[in-house]
Amino acid sequence: MTNPPAGRHRSDIGRSLELMWRGPERSGRGPKPALTLEGIVGAAVHLADREGLAALSMRRVAAELGVGTMSLYRYVPGKGELLDLMVDHVSGPPAEVRAAREQREGRAGKDWRAVLQLIGETTYRLYRAHPWLLQVNQSRPLLGPNTLLGLDFALGALDGLGLGSRERISVIMTLDSFITGIARQHVLSRLAAEETGISDEDFWAAQVPLMESAMASGAYPHVFSLTEDAFSVAEEDMLRFGLTRILDGIETFLGNAAAERQASGPEAGAGVRARG
Amino acid sequence: MTNPPAGRHRSDIGRSLELMWRGPERSGRGPKPALTLEGIVGAAVHLADREGLAALSMRRVAAELGVGTMSLYRYVPGKGELLDLMVDHVSGPPAEVRAAREQREGRAGKDWRAVLQLIGETTYRLYRAHPWLLQVNQSRPLLGPNTLLGLDFALGALDGLGLGSRERISVIMTLDSFITGIARQHVLSRLAAEETGISDEDFWAAQVPLMESAMASGAYPHVFSLTEDAFSVAEEDMLRFGLTRILDGIETFLGNAAAERQASGPEAGAGVRARG
DNA sequence: CACCTTAGCGTACGGCGTACCCAGTAAAAG
DNA sequence: CTTTTACTGGGTACGCCGTACGCTAAGGTG
């Protein structure tokens, strides 16, 4: 009975949200804090960027800031919440995207393809810059100020296309899922190369002998009729390829939806509504 | 969310591959092994399925098998390699897909859409059945016998469509990236619900008060013009939506490629080559 | 038989997240 | 002013983790 059921360090949603949106509350009494939440989160992000998620421990973050380990717990309830904060910290749409956002005021429905492409590539670069994002098991997408801004921008790109709310969310989720998936593939592969010190070439070379005996077994005819260059597609080309496929698919969808609306009057179509 | 140890235990590629393809080598001498590799991997998978990746420790697996912790290290070099083996263990195309594979012998180029859809949905269900697959993230996709069989089947579906090797891989990677991405979203969300005991409704409810003040700020116009049902799309519908978009996009690509080939003779087209 | 390879595994080390508690500080109350 | 009180920094300790090391004993080989 001395211990509660070993309460694993889960993130307290309410607390994380409050910290993200309002920051810590101060009530005047007592000594002045030597640290700031921003500083802690920034140091943690810096550490994770430099040395990977495995190196991110409360002890290391504290050492980075020159304070005792337990001092961090005066600012953050636990490691889970710190990770939540780190995610939102780096998740804002970068300057590049903010600029594009302002430039396209009022051009609804015109350049959705370019904007979605920009969002996709930007998100991809985000994962590249902060590989640990893909290792953090984001419990759920916590909507912090930055995360929400990114979503808002993506939604803006879909304005004026006649899509309903559910359809807009579906389109964004499709794009985002693909980007996350392909970034995961590339980033984890790169991480593995760094951590093990084994390059991609060495890695594939290590598989060759066993692959050859597998080929001899005849169980994998299609794999072994591939040409040698099959796996050498550059990562950016792969991203571009998939992105184009998905945008094409969305375009087809837009065409179908428009045709359907045309056929049955302007206010039909499930969930389609111009404004709330 | 926890970050699973993720760290110091790099997996030895050569050793993992050898264990996957050849199994452990025995040299007759000494006492007979009380365990089998299969048994260990199976127990580990079972444990991870039941209690999550966070509960998967060498001590727990050993306890499950009724042996001492260090005995496992006679069979497996370390936890990293055990994870590699677990991944391949569950990654085989299930009976359902194997059946479809045999049924379509010789019908190349006809039902690629149905087959890719089946593969997508099957992969999605795989992640659903073994959520920890999406949390394991420390190595490159090791090609074990089962993994390779899945790839071979996917390649078979693209036979007879006039695609080159690099294009086939690109198509498969696009599909796989999307499936992995969306499964990640759904599975991690579900995991979080189980582990924190907070349902999806409670989760969104917790965000409402802060969202309302965010709305008042006027910084997120597009988000707050969404209708209330925007986020209530069922997971399967979301999967189906994205899958259809991607298959449409691939279909467009096939059409373009065919047209291009038609226009400039049978052996043109960047990267298209029948055999090496 | 003795020899020697190999299996099982007890112990120990250095790391982790964090609960608990105390000492010291600074603002508020008297 | 002094006293009170809320608060901060952080030392210590607990129970986990992966795994290196080295011992005992089993059982084919000579």
From TrEMBL, chains A, B:
Q: Does the keyword ATP-binding apply?
A: no
Q: Which Gene3D superfamilies match?
A: Homeodomain-like, Tetracycline Repressor, domain 2
Report any Pfam family annotated for this entry.
TetR_N
- In this chain the HTH tetR-type domain maps to 34-94
PROSITE patterns the UniProt entry points to: HTH_TETR_2 (PS50977)
Q: Which residues bind DNA?
A: 57-76
Q: Which UniProt keywords apply?
A: DNA-binding, Transcription, Transcription regulation
The record's annotation in PANTHER family points to:
HTH-TYPE TRANSCRIPTIONAL REGULATOR RUTR, TRANSCRIPTIONAL REGULATORY PROTEIN
Name of protein: TetR/AcrR family transcriptional regulator
| Organism of provenance | Streptomyces boetiae
